[in-house]
């Protein structure tokens, strides 16, 4: 699971109001290179929750993203490369996503989070 | 990529060996899948460089077709682990990156508008009434650009009315009518093959709604 996907996911447990972002527990990270698409990154920047992306990438072992970012940084190739790497090239392969409000763990196996809820969580 | 090539690649994908009737698991044939995505990309530019979601992805046919046509990031959602496993293998076969999430589409919580395009072949609601509408409702909540979906032609008026009046679609158009060849997948299927009239829809969400998570 890429961090782009993580950045749009919230805890879906009934009654939870602060379900974003899901905390990440890492057991295995895989890096897969993909081509950088400048236009795509520029479009995505406005939609991304930056702090959640920074925190998530650091948990995954990548600490190159600045704490804060603004759109003028998109003019820098170096920044684009780091943004690209964090957003699209880091994959959580094994671990868990954790609801920040309830602590409930959603397991991640082979890169796939299981977000099926139990009966009492629906 | 030419339509014929896309068709061929999709035709080589693995499908479910034991489909579950309660979930209305039917594979989206390569013919329909290739045409759906081809239209979405060539007529509307809704695929390449976009974030695409495949709701009820099953073995991944629609999502993978999106990837083949240049979607930048594709996420498949399905309730069945076995389907996702096969979809994962199919993605590896095609050397495509595709994320998958196992979940019930009805209680998914995604950021508004993080997804550009939704492509889906949802259950028709023949086993669990309203399943098709659940999928459509969720798709209209999360997509910012467009939704491509397949629904039985017999439900056409109901779908149009509900999408526009209740689910906040700004437009709802039938792009074309197709015929699903439903092969003899399940024990209760008496005929070798049956033809079901299906509409390919394109919905555009109303983006002026207030945002919520």
UniProtKB/TrEMBL annotation, chain A:
Gene Ontology terms describing biological process: rRNA (guanine-N7)-methylation; tRNA methylation
GO terms for MF: protein heterodimerization activity
The protein's assembly and partners: Interacts with TRM9.
Family stated for the protein in its record: Belongs to the TRM112 family.
Protein name per the record: Multifunctional methyltransferase subunit TRM112-like protein At1g22270
Taxonomic source organism: Sesamum indicum (Oriental sesame)
From TrEMBL, chain B:
Family: Belongs to the methyltransferase superfamily. PrmA family.
CDD domains with a match to the protein in the record: AdoMet_MTases
Domain Methyltransferase small: 48-129
Entries under Pfam families matching the protein: MTS
Organism whose genome encodes this protein: Sesamum indicum
InterPro entries: DNA_methylase_N6_adenine_CS, rRNA_MeTrfase/Polyamine_Synth, SAM-dependent_MTases_sf, Small_mtfrase_dom
Protein name: Methyltransferase-like protein 5
Highest rank taxon of the organism: Eukaryota
SUPFAM superfamilies tied to this protein: S-adenosyl-L-methionine-dependent methyltransferases
A GO molecular-function descriptor: rRNA (adenine-N6-)-methyltransferase activity
